[in-house]
Amino acid sequence: MANQGLLGSTIARKFAMALSALFLIVFLLQHMSINMLSVFSADTFNEVSHFMGTFWLVQYVMQPILIFGVLLHFILGFILEYKNWSSRKVKYANYKGSANASWMSRNMIYTGAVILLFLGLHFYDFWIPEIAHKFVEGKDSFIENGVADSGYRFYHELRHKFDGDIVRMILYVVSFIFLGLHLNHGFESAFQSMGARSKKYTPIIKKLGTAYSILIPLGFIVIAVYHYVTQL
Amino acid sequence: MKLLLKIWRQNGPQDKGKMVDYNVDGIEGDMSFLEMMDVLNSQLIEKGDEPVIFDHDCREGICGSCSMFINGEAHGPGRNVTTCQLHMRSFKDGETIFIEPWRAEAFPVIKDLMVDRSAFDRIIQAGGYVSVNTSGNTQDANSLPIPKEDADLAFDAATCIGCGACVATCKNASAMLFTSAKISQLSLLPQGQVEAKERVINMVNQMDLEGFGNCTNTGACEVECPKGISLDNIARMNREYLSATAKGKK
Amino acid sequence: MALDSKIPEGPLKDKWTNYKNQIDLVNPANKRNIDVIVVGTGLAGASASASLAELGYNVKTFCFQDSPRRAHSIAAQGGINAAKNYQGDGDSTYRLFYDTVKGGDYRSREANVYRLAEVSANIIDQCVAQGVPFARDYGGLLDNRSFGGVLVSRTFYAKGQTGQQLLLGAYSALSRQIAKGKVEMHNRHEMLDLVKVDGKARGIIARNLVTGEIQRHSAHAVVIASGGYGNVFFLSTNAMGSNVTAAWKAHKKGAHMANPCFTQIHPTCIPVSGGFQSKLTLMSESLRNDGRIWVPKKMEDAKAIQAGTLKGKDIAEENRDYYLERRYPAFGNLVPRDVASRAAKERCDAGFGVNKTGEAVYLDFKSAIVRYGKQEAFVHGNKNPSDAEIQTLGKAAVAAKYGNLFQMYEKITDENPYEMPMKIYPAVHYTMGGLWVDYDLMTDIPGCYAAGEANFSDHGANRLGASALMQGLADGYFVLPYTIGNYLSKDIRTGEIPNDSAEFMAAEKEVKARIDGFMNAKGTKPVDHFHMRLGKLMWENCGMARNAEGLQKGMKEIKALKEEFFANVRIPGVANGVNQELEKAGRVADLMELGELMCKDALERSESCGGHFREESVELDGIQKGEAKRDDENFSFVSAWQWNGESGKQELIKEPLEFKDIAVKQRSYK
Prior knowledge:
Chain A has one domain (10-85, 122-229). In chain A, a hairpin with a 2-residue loop joins β1 and β2 (147-152). Chain A has helices at residues 10-40, 42-54, 56-86, 103-106, 108-136, 154-161, 166-193, 202-229; strands at residues 142-144, 147-152. Helix content of chain A is 74%, strand content 4%. Chain A has a two-stranded antiparallel sheet with strand order 1-2. Chain A has eight helices and two strands. In chain B, 36% of the residues lie in helices and 12% in strands. In chain B, the strands form two sheets. In chain B, strands 2-1-5-3-4 form a five-stranded mixed β-sheet. In chain B, α2 runs antiparallel to α7, α3 (148-158) runs antiparallel to α5 and α5 packs across α9 (232-246). Chain B is elongated and about 60 Å long. Chain C folds into three domains: 16-265 and 429-488, 3-Layer(bba) Sandwich (FAD/NAD(P)-binding domain); 268-428, no CATH class; 502-642, Methane Monooxygenase Hydroxylase, Chain G, domain 1 (Up-down Bundle), CATH 1.20.58. Helix content of chain C is 38%, strand content 14%. Chain C is built from 18 helices and 20 strands. In chain C, α3 packs parallel to α6, α5 packs across α13 and α15 packs parallel to α17. The longest helix of chain C has 27 residues, at 387-413. Chains in contact: A-B, B-C. Chains B and C meet through α1, α2 and α3 of B and α3, α5, α6 and α12 of C.
């Protein structure tokens, strides 16, 4: 029997999900850390944003990989869900999923879908304007194009989005809660999928996963709430 | 004890099937779940109705025949038990009990609560063995010492009874716990090392061909497994599979 | 007609080697043209199928379960014997042979048993090579434990699941051959008749249990490895599906049934708890290594326990009667199964039973927990452990050895055996009798073989613990592959056996008529109703203790029950689909006929031997007073019963037993 190729087998698909997940986990950590700077120092935030937005390695290597990773994770996630759904077409009349598995682990597709919707909003808010500024309008990093004295535009733009917009703030907060739920299972699941499990390390990974899935979304929530509240 | 049973009745693979209500009375706590079903079937037969068909044989939790999805859980509410080891003392007087067959595309219903689990046999046939002839012309059993720890882990994996509760309970109808238990047993022992790479590839491929779902690490299988087969085995299978694939095994 | 057991010439220890050197072999090209049918996929059937397929024969294997892995060998707990002498405690092929013949109360055939002992060591090698995870010690070598009726540790085990591990080993070997196309596996099929052409076994009629289709399968030889018939007692440790049908059909086609009354009643089973009970659960004999069996010494204590006002754990040490240790100081709690069972019955009959029906004795781990606890504390450097520490450590040690058994006990009885002594009682477990076979394991139908529990060959009147697994695998892996070849070497020019000959068509028609008969029965009662009654009357009249009057009564009652069965059974549903009632009806009808023969055989054998205890034959004085009394002068033979066209009218043919290499003695465990 021939090997079914990279994504042909169930285990290879698990592995691909896990790999992209780990990449996204690292990405989230740096994203949250940089954004958190905006709470403490507008200048540092601007400096780092400028660096990230102009450094070639980030822009032309990491960013495409990230986009690929996100797409892979979502598309594969939906393929998996469809395949899994069709592995049991006739459903149980009575199925007590809560008896043996956590809510988070059973609802990755829903928490994931919420995150996908959020990404739509988030891209509309920041990433699409940013790409448009940079590559369509030919803007640089300053509020007034080419005028360094006008200051970096990043902090300014961030503040603007949350200025008095309670709906946006709430949408962000709710989405981050879903992100937390998704990460709560996703973190340790990624390790299990890659076969990284041992008596010694698995308990540590589990604790780390729980901590991560609380702290990262909490950080994002603090940032969103801070910028909303301080502009009231 | 009086009970209301809601049981899946399906006359054959092509029949649509439906849940049917039955009342039973005079059930005692010391009865096993299957003995309760015997009582129901006796009543049905005496009335001239067809008894509920279900698989069962040893009735001591080791053959893996019995396979009922009871009140939303594989083998019912007990832990580390098969349906035949579940006793009626786990239920309350007047309780409503849902009884359904294992549900998975890879386990088609034959009749009522009886399903076809031959997919499991085909997974084993794809490589769940050590390719040694039964001639007895092998080396002395003690010429190959095996660390107790490995032997014990291999034994734990080998206690799988192939009942299919893992598939039935998994929200994805995945057979990874079953498949990984056999792969683990043999990969932990030196006898199984020789063909370990081919084995994991072939067995996983067969598992996929049978139409089982994809593991999403919910861990439900480990909880519902009557023999407590550990998720460690799935992790080990993943490692073995990835390393075999990386080495270009087909 | 005299029976020819075809025992090879020469000294005992060379017989098998000489045999193997002299048989005719079949060349590999010819093996491809020869078909063999194997019925049953337990240890004997699965191992025979795999081995024959490896040799190159086309094998067609049948099992009624949904997978070959579910055959009831899977439930064997304790272990498998082999004369490896790894413990250096004086074991040898001869000693295993001697223990088995003695344990069987000198009612088995020397040559067969010696061969069994001879190949036993190879079984362990074979199973280890297959990846069977036997228990090991810290040095990585195989561990052993001891079992009843022997004085050495020769039992290999895998916790309390040895049968499972061995069967899965055989199943994996079988699976390998199925994948290669050398074995054509028929799951969910039941053999309903044997087909003879020109006097030879040439095939079977089978029913597909899913579609109900009646099929004709032809082959050059047929192996019956369908297990034992303990289910004639309804309540037994057998699986619900275990049945005698395959063997019985062969019997009715001319194969002799040998020693059908030799039934093993296992001493350590969980007692019956109610009238609804469908089966009994065994607690491994290995528990007797550490557990002590007792009942109260004082009648008033026993009465209080039966009334539920006193608990076993509250009875003081001096008021406990460790009756096995008292009666059999040399073997104590490790006497053979038949002896232990009878001793339990004796105490319970005397009124000392310890559950509400007075049909249970205690199996107590209290002293084992203390002993292990002290030992563990000592090993860990604690020279002065407290009682609590001893209890904790001791319980952990006992759990490590028997944890799964204790857990099983607690699940069934809802009582914690670490705190309360276990309650146990004897239950039907194994049938030593079965189809008569010669040294080749061939019945007296040419080409029809019987292996494992289905044959009668190795255990005499009582089987020792951990010997059934040994025999099943020996037959399948190491004996049949040789002996069948010897027979088939004469069949290489036969060509494919047609399955539409007159004999096949007639057998098919007969099977269909029988099924129609069941379907058309106009009664009202389910099959189980009759099966339970059969079981009860067998237990009462042909159980642990038998007498002439009871046996005659039993035969009469079975006859009446049989008539009532055919008149009053109801089989709902249709024959051409899944119909579990129809399956059971066929099996129970055969069990009734078998029950009659068992009573007849037990009546004929008016001696006590092994598991067969005739109340009329006991020692009347001396140190052995009250023990079973064997009668070698009149009964040193195998009873082989020949079918004569009517149930209960079989004719007895005797195969005399000669003991040349073993001195026949009274079996003493005192």
